[in-house]
Amino acid sequence: MKKIFIILLISLLFPIITKAQISKRNWYIQTNFGIEQHDKRLFHYSEKAMLLALQPEKWGTYNIKISINRNILNSNFLGIAIGFGTNYELATFLRPFDHFVFKQDIIKMLWHQDRYSKISITTPLTFNIRILPRLIIDCKANSAFNIYREINNSAVNGNTYFPYKKTEFKLTKIQFDVGLKYILYKFIIGLHYRARNYQEIDKIIFNNILKDPRIDQKWELYNPLHFELSIGYYL
Predict the structure, then answer these.
(1) What is the 8-class DSSP label of residue 134?
(2) What's 193's domain CATH number?
(3) Are 148 and 166 a contacting pair, CB within 8 Å?
(4) How confident is the model over 198-210, as pLDDT tens digits?
(5) Is 37 in contact with 61 (CB distance < 8 Å)?
(6) Contact present, 203 and 98 (Cβ < 8 Å)
(7) Contact at 8 Å (CB) between 162 and 156?
């Protein structure tokens, strides 16, 4: 019985494997528009209650991704694409931060910010599972290498000290997304949900100011709700 099952499985998979080939539509560009719940973790910060009361809204982190991708495998059932792109993220939750990280000044004052921007380079690896001729389940692993940070405060825009800026190149996030994509002629329209998020603990906003107990921890699993709408186009 076991041998029969193996033979049947091979017979079903063989046409898919043998027909696997580079798609005629090798390249596509994609733009993602994302929204995420606020990260309201303030731990034991003395003004925690006040800041939470001032900001009852749940959503307030936004991002835009642009990537170019290449299909390296496209069978009747499974497709694989690799890509390269960039991501802009803006967090708008008002919170304190450690401005000494930026090494722009030595003034001993506690600043708050509500405009935390990041720009990163992304390297998406996408697995596409075709369930209907035009409908695809999208599973993606995406690494982000941060290259630029900027912190500002909308209430004191133009202040002598703001904005704080920093350039770098470091891996700061690895996330896994799932979603559905629909192909309409050369257009690809998708809706995605972040299923897993592994990120570097940002010491600019998580530090002794908040009495963050994770003194020696560098990375964390933290995944507030995050959704993205994507629009792609085959070149």
Answers:
(1) T
(2) 2.40.160.20
(3) yes
(4) 999 999 999 999 9
(5) yes
(6) yes
(7) yes
pTM value is 0.86
**Domain membership flag for residue 37:** yes
- Tally Cβ neighbours within 10 Å of residue 81: 23
Strand runs labelled E in 40-152: 59-74, 78-91, 95-97, 111-113, 115-132, 135-152
Q: Is residue 216 part of a domain?
A: yes
**What is the Cα–Cα distance from 97 to 111, expressed in whole angstroms?**
6
Q: Can you name the residues that pair with 130 across neighbouring β-strands?
A: 136
How far is it, in rounded angstroms, from Cα 202 to Cα 208?
12
pLDDT at residue 7 greater than cutoff 70: no
Q: Which domain holds residue 228?
A: 22-234
Is the Cβ–Cβ distance between 141 and 178 less than 8 Å?
no
* Separation between Cα atoms, residue 114 and residue 159, nearest integer Å: 14
The Cα–Cα gap between 83 and 69 comes to 4
What is the number of other CB atoms lying within 10 angstroms of the CB of residue 72? Answer: 13
Residue 80: CA atoms inside 13 Å, Cβ hemisphere, count? 6
Q: Are 41 and 61 in contact (CB under 8 A)?
A: no
The residue type at 210: L
For residue 12, is it within any domain?
A: no
Tell me the pLDDT tens digit for each residue of 141-160: 999 999 999 999 998 866 77
For residue 58, pLDDT beyond 90? yes
